[in-house]
Every structure is written in C-alpha cells, then in structure tokens.
Specification:
Layout lengths: L2 E8 L9 E8 L7 E5 L9 H6 L4 H4 L5 H15 L6 E4 L2 H15 L9 E2 H9 L18 H19 L7
Parallel strand pairs: 1-4, 4-5
Antiparallel strand pairs: 1-2, 2-3
Helix pairs in contact: 3-4, 5-6
InterPro entries: RNaseH-like_sf, RNaseH_sf
Organism: Flaviaesturariibacter amylovorans
Protein name: Exonuclease
Length: about 170
C-alpha cells in the first residue's frame, strides 16, 4: 500500500472562495526521492494577503501559475505511477491539506485517486504517544519552510520515524 504525504499552500482558509496556490507530495518510501510539485493559478478573485504571504508568492506571480485542471491531471497521473497497486493513502499533517486537495481533485478531474478519506499525521502521533497535547514536529529533519515539497518531505520523515520509534504497523510498498 502506498502512502503519499501532501502539503498545501493556499491564499485563504477554504477551497472555492479561495485558492490552493501550490502543493507538494512525497511517496513515503525511503529514500523519499519520488516527489511532485504543483503551482496552480487562482480559481477566484478572492484572497487574503496574509495567507498568501505564507507561500512567499505575490498575487501577480500566482496569476501566471499553471491551469489547475492541468496540474491536478498531472498529479493524478503521478499518483497512479508511484502507487500502481490498490488505492493510495493520503497523509498530511492536518485536515487543511485534505480539504483543498479533495475539492480540487473533484472540481478539476471529477474524482479523487485517494477516495474519500485521509490520514492525519498529528492525530496518529498523539495516539502513538497516548497524549493529545504532544506533536510530531520534532521528528522532522527537513526544515519546515512553507515550500510544500520541503514540508511534505519533513512530514514523511516524521512518519518514517514514528514507524521506527513506535513499531507503527504501516506497510510501505
């Protein structure tokens, strides 16, 4: 079973009125060298400057990004390429990423290769350590800098560290 770690940068809190600006994905399988990066042109005129600033892109830059349908179609093909057997598992550090990714897949490709559910890395870690006040972020090796490929890579490192440290039963193809 393939696990794919995804991180999203957006210009607002929800998909539709606001846009996913970029995302990164990493196949969770050592040496973490199968990666995807997409930059998407906004889907609306609305944006929150402070939210967009996190991505370190200007509105003018994002207006020159790729067509969302093209990016999502390429991403769906990449998912199928790196996860040819069974349904791949979507993993992110929180529900924000899933919300955008699911909406964009359905809006622009008509279906979601991950199905209807995702895995939340933060909640998984809390269960492993039996403490809802703990977080996994210290397990990342790659710096969390809001470049979505780097952030997804750091989160994939954390998942692999959890597998090792806690004997987490997770089958990585």
């Amino acid at each position: 079973m393939a696990y794919i770690m995804v991180d999203v940068e957006a210009d607002g809190p929800i998909p539709g009125p606001y846009s996913m600006i970029s995302f990164g994905a990493v196949l969770v399988q050592a040496p973490l060298d199968k990666k995807f990066y997409g930059q998407l042109r906004p889907v609306s005129d609305q944006y929150i400057p402070e939210a967009l600033a996190v991505s370190r892109h200007t509105r003018e830059e994002t207006l020159r990004f790729d067509d969302p349908q093209d990016v999502m179609t390429r991403f769906a093909a990449w998912v199928k390429e790196v996860a040819p057997k069974g349904r791949p598992r979507f993993v992110s550090d929180n529900g924000f990423d899933w919300m955008f990714m699911c909406w964009y897949f359905h809006r622009f490709t008509g279906s979601n290769p991950f199905g209807h559910s995702s895995m939340n890395l933060g909640s998984l870690y809390k269960g492993c350590v039996h403490d809802t006040f703990k977080n996994f972020k210290h397990l990342r090796r790659t710096v969390h800098d809001h470049h979505p490929v780097n952030d997804a890579t750091g989160n994939a490192e954390a998942l692999l560290a959890m597998k090792e440290a806690f004997g987490l039963k997770i089958k990585l193809d």
